[in-house]
Amino acid sequence: MSLIKPFRGLRPASGHEQDVVAPPYDVLNTAEAREMAVGRPWSFLHISKPEIDLPEGTDPYDAAVYAKGAENLNNMVSKGVLIREQQAVYYVYRLIMNGHSQTGLVAVASVKDYDSNRIRKHEFTRPDKENDRVRQIDALNAQTGPVFLTYRHHAGVDELVGKAMQQDPLYDLTAADNVQHTFWVLDDQDAIDQISRYFDAMDCLYIADGHHRSAAGSRVGAMRKESNLDHSGDESSDYFLSVIFPDNQMQILDYNRMISDLNGLSGEDFLSRVKERFSVTSSGQPVKPAAPSEFGMYLDGQWYKLQLSTDRIPTDDPVGRLDVSLLANELIEPILGISDPRRDKRIDFVGGIRGLTELERRVDSGEMAVAFSLYPTRLEDLMAVADANEVMPPKSTWFEPKLADGLVSHVLD
């Protein structure tokens, strides 16, 4: 088995890509998806969020939802809106957002290498979300949501991807979120074989986003293997849909925190406690940290810059030295009394795409008592955590731009 391989993608027919393209299934709730799909009968939301085609109030985990998704997928295939590639190919996928460009390879990645941790993880999964993806893949007999992978950049891969981009693109569209999505088919067999060899020689790949989708791909692969007495080990279900980006093109935004109360402290007492652990400086402007171990804090209408002393930062602990861990271990837990950010309702998380004004708004409204801005987690830190077989704290990374749904799916033959 190869680490990655080409596949016969299921994709929009020429001219239908703008009709089909949709945001990732997990960035919209049902009401938002229902509204976005109005007047768009071929939107991929009818497949990724099929409860929008059932009565309001339908449980999104009801068996009827998965059956409706399969029905909608089959209908789009029968009407020629979605077509199957004639041969196994790679695709090149470029996203451009606010001047940032990143280009990845669309492939299917090995379940076996995921199971052996050659495709490395850095997050726990939630059973309910993982089960949902298993049921969705099994009902559709296809993987429709790609896993977002990264690798240490490779000059040979860059060269072959660049050559593919000299051809006319298959799709070039701008989605509702103003992200430009451009797709090329890479069907030259010599280039396909060379790319496969380059990846086979790599030590590992890393999951950036899509831990539930990759875990579900592994489980469906195991289910299909168990039920197939003639299983060869190289069936389509032994791979999962992926888009793989080089590490030097990835963009991680800040993932900020806010707390609803000060744990019984007055603002003055809270600030005094913070000064016991951090260097604190008032700021007349919102504080967007410029380096690791620097934090912004918004309290009572005032911004502060917090700097943690280097002697409080562990050097030999890839998880403990993350800024999200430092803030949790030095302030949020000991001062604000939040020890389980996964379950504590007093803490909320805001992706950096929303900007610092969102932190100000929610504190000024009285909904939250204090907010913290963080320096974005660095990709090399994510890789170090994954290499150590450790797990990052919740809400550590916010990747932008997001991959679109619907541009290509992986059918399980």
Protein architecture, described:
With 413 residues, the chain is of the alpha+beta class. It has two domains: 4-251 and 400-411, no CATH class; 255-375, 2-Layer Sandwich (Conserved hypothetical protein from pyrococcus furiosus pfu- 392566-001, domain 2). 31% of the residues lie in helices and 25% in strands. The protein has helices at residues 17-20, 30-36, 45-48, 63-78, 111-115, 127-140, 155-164, 189-200, 211-227, 267-275, 323-332, 356-364, 379-387; strands spanning 4-5, 9-12, 82-84, 90-97, 100-110, 119-120, 142-143, 147-151, 171-174, 180-186, 205-209, 239-246, 252-253, 255-259, 278-283, 294-299, 302-308, 347-351, 370-374, 398-399, 409-411. The strands form four sheets. Strands 1, 4, 5, 6, 8, 9, 10, 11 and 12 form a nine-stranded mixed beta sheet that branches. Strands 15-17-16-19-14-18 form a six-stranded antiparallel beta sheet, with helices on both faces. A hairpin with a 2-residue loop joins strand 4 (90-97) and strand 5 (100-110). The radius of gyration is 23 Å and the shape is globular. The chain starts with a strand and ends with a strand.
Produce the secondary structure layout.
Blueprint: E1 4-5, E2 9-12, H1 17-20, H2 30-36, H3 45-48, H4 63-78, E3 82-84, E4 90-97, E5 100-110, H5 111-115, E6 119-120, H6 127-140, E7 142-143, E8 147-151, H7 155-164, E9 171-174, E10 180-186, H8 189-200, E11 205-209, H9 211-227, E12 239-246, E13 252-253, E14 255-259, H10 267-275, E15 278-283, E16 294-299, E17 302-308, H11 323-332, E18 347-351, H12 356-364, E19 370-374, H13 379-387, E20 398-399, E21 409-411
Parallel strand pairs: 6-11, 8-12
Antiparallel strand pairs: 1-5, 2-3, 2-21, 4-5, 4-10, 5-12, 7-21, 8-11, 9-10, 13-20, 14-18, 14-19, 15-17, 16-17, 16-19
Helix pairs in contact: 4-6, 6-9
